[in-house]
Amino acid sequence: MNFYELLTRAGKGEFLQSSEISQLLQVPDEAAEKALFAAAYGVKREFCGNYVNLRGLVEFSNICTRDCLYCGIRKSVRSVSRYCMSADEIVAAARRAGEFGYGSVVLQSGERSDPEFTGFVTEILQKISALPYALGITLSCGEQSMETYLRWREAGATRYLLRIESSDPAIFARIHPPECRFEERLAALHRLKEADYQLGTGVMIGLPGQSCEDLAKDICFFRELDVDMIGMGPYLPQNETPLGRDFPDAPGAAEKRLQLALRMIAATRLVLRDVNIAAATALQAIAPDSGRERGILAGANVIMPNVGETLHRRDYQLYNGKPDLDENAPAVREKLLTSLAAIGEVPRFNEPGDPLHYAIRTGRK
Ligand code: SAH
Known about the structure:
15 helices, binds S-adenosyl-L-homocysteine, about 375 residues
């Protein structure tokens, strides 16, 4: 079937096979790519209007027990100084998000599962839930036991973001140390769903050895897992990691990966329809002035501006080229509002911005 026929079917929400999704991702030329973005943006408008949901991001600790081969805060990187913000600092950042009207926060950290850490997160959740803003709270703290997920859910977390990184077990194994197991990651995603979180997952796009077929299968994986939210972005080599060292970027590689990531956002919007899709910060790392905006125009509906203090930002560089290292939260907000207005999108202030998909999936709508 030709590309445009396929795109028309996708636009109407017809079921696409993995090979067909792969064909969409491999757009034949620039005009086709534009048509793909326009179709996906149309579906975004249908389900989310011209609204963008905002999540204030708090990168509260870079202490990590894992050694993922791509990640700039993996435990064996010695050049970052390790920190964990205090409960007061984290709550202050959440309060700032509330005052800014962001409607929700994302608490992200390196992975730890010791009782001191899990108890600390419980305490923060209770404190943030008690703030007078009705914030949605997303956690992004890696694989945990059912007991921990349930405790955090009870303490006020409503969403959880745990990327599968790649739904292909062979790729997953290539980018993780042996103790980090694909089956375990999958089991953790199922636990989160059972614990009644709004479930988010995602992948890195443009990993060494990853094809459009692989990415199409990732989208099928999202569909089968029936997730509510997608957070995915271009893979960016980090020069102090094994993967970054072994596969340094050729000139122009980053820009190509950005395009691929935008096509991936578009294809995901066409297939999943009513989910929340984040325009990841990694898009902005490649194109500082337009990455996230291009993400929205390709079908994303969520942006996660940083609300933490700039103090620790240098020590939370998952990849090279992280944007806004010195920009404080009000400055980040100003820039964002201006750039959204320029593309005719409106921030949805003071609303948690729950994904429609979750309400439908759980029969609450
Ligand atoms: N430890 C938590 C959250 C921190 S990492 C967890 O594992 O869930 C958050 C995400 O950053 C990861 O899921 C990964 O997809 C992304 N990431 C890490 N290193 C990256 C890199 N070099 N390029 C692009 N994304 C990266």
